[in-house]
Amino acid sequence: MEQPTRESPAAPTSSTQLLRVMGRRDLISAVVNTVIGSGVFGLPSAVAALTGARSPAAVLLAGLGVFTIVLCVAELASRFDTTGGPYLYARAAFGGTIGFHVGWLLVCTRVLSGAAVLNVLTAYLATLVPWVGTPAGRACAMTATVAIIAAINVRGVRQAAWTVNLFTVAKLLPLALLIVLGAAQLRGDVFATQRVAAPDWAGAVLLMVFAYGGFEMAVVTAGETKRPREDTPFAVVAGMAIVTAVYCLTQLAVVGVLPHAAASKAPIADALRVLLGAGGGVLGGVAAVVSACGWLTGTALLLPRVLFSMAERGELPALLGRVHPSFRTPHVAIVGSSLVALGLGLAGTFAQTATLSAIGRLVVLVVVCAAVVALRRQSGLPAGFMLPAGITFAVLGIVFSVWLLSTRSLAQGWSIGVIVAAGEAVRLVARRRAAPSRTPAA
Q: pLDDT tens across 137-186, in order?
């Protein structure tokens, strides 16, 4: 019978080969970039269709619900200084089996999200370069994007972090422009056009919760952070506060300047077109492409670190735990995860991959919140940040996530079951291959 694995936050592993170069500003940028992807350029119209002129309030309510989980992640992050994030938290709290499946779901949901964003990227790029709308153009655009981003991340964590910072600023500038210009031109008659017969608050909150997802991935780089136990909790809270403000103000600007926003397929571009003319529409399209590229770059930075951490512990093939001798990055994990995301992106659609990603993420968040309760009972894992009323927040986060899971269909739940079963098969194979080189337990 497998015994739960309890790891000290400072337990030495081969992750000491990685370079600690990321600071607080890099971490905040990673949180913002990881959460604000291409979805913000399409979601305002969907939320407006559900709650009309009151949609900014729905965005805020969703943000407050997610913050119960954000605070739990902040406390957990203050206990660890090695690479792994939620995978490591679950492993320390509940043992190797649950920890593995949390890590596996993190990997699968992020790869699926990457495939979804690749489809969004090519859809927006096709409005600027029509050839990308052809099958050959779509394949070439996806392949070139993945190759460039993977190369940047293999080259070094410093380069990857700088690139993420650049993309984060680039994606926020058009949104900031919309917020500032829109605030000066909010019109009551435009708000009046945002009418819905029967507001669906639950549907709107559910939709926005998926848009707020991804912050749980931004904590996986603790092994490459200068002061992980101090800076990571601050970065998670500060980054998500920025995201919430951007989402709420963007939604307000869209429903305040764009008549009948619910009918728009590209609400950010259309709102900028209202404010700036034809050039604003082009700016909105470019901003969506930049945002997608930034998100993909951040994922190529974060996702391979989960694979690396799991391979270190013999739960995935050892090949994924290799570190490049010159660049000091987990290069095999970077290239491997990039190729899988590319394959899924070429084969699937946005809706198919995004839905599965969202369900898997909610399962991970339930375990993360439960880990707060479990780790508070362990004296060997002190927290640098102790969340006031932490147990209450953890319970609220679990209830919130379970409620969202209850809205999904049984067929979608079976898909997650298949992913979990596949993960267990991979784990068993990896452990058998690693067994001959292990020292028998006492």
A: 999 999 999 999 999 889 877 777 788 788 888 888 999 999 999 999 99
- Burial label for 349, CB within 10 Å (0-12, 13-18, 19+), is exposed
Mean pLDDT of 374-398: 87
* 160, part of any domain: yes
| First vs last C-alpha separation in the chain | 14
Q: Compute CA distances 253 → 85, 190, 209, whole Å.
A: 35, 11, 20
pLDDT confidence of residue 260: 92
Residues 83, 61: Cα–Cα separation, whole Å: 32
Q: Which two structure tokens, joined as six digits, stand for 210? A: 């998926």
Q: What predicted TM-score, i.e. pTM, was given to this entire model?
A: 0.81
In a domain, 255, yes or no: yes
Please indicate, yes or no, if residue 348 is contained in any of the structural domains: yes
Domain assignment of residue 313, given as a range: 17-82+111-352
Percent of the chain with pLDDT over 70: 89
440 within a domain of the structure (yes/no):
no
Q: Name the domain count of the chain.
A: 1
Convert the pLDDT of each residue in 86-112 to its tens digit.
Answer: 988 999 999 988 999 998 988 888 888
DSSP annotation string for 69-80? HHHHHHHHHTT-
CATH number for the domain that contains residue 63: 1.20.1740.10
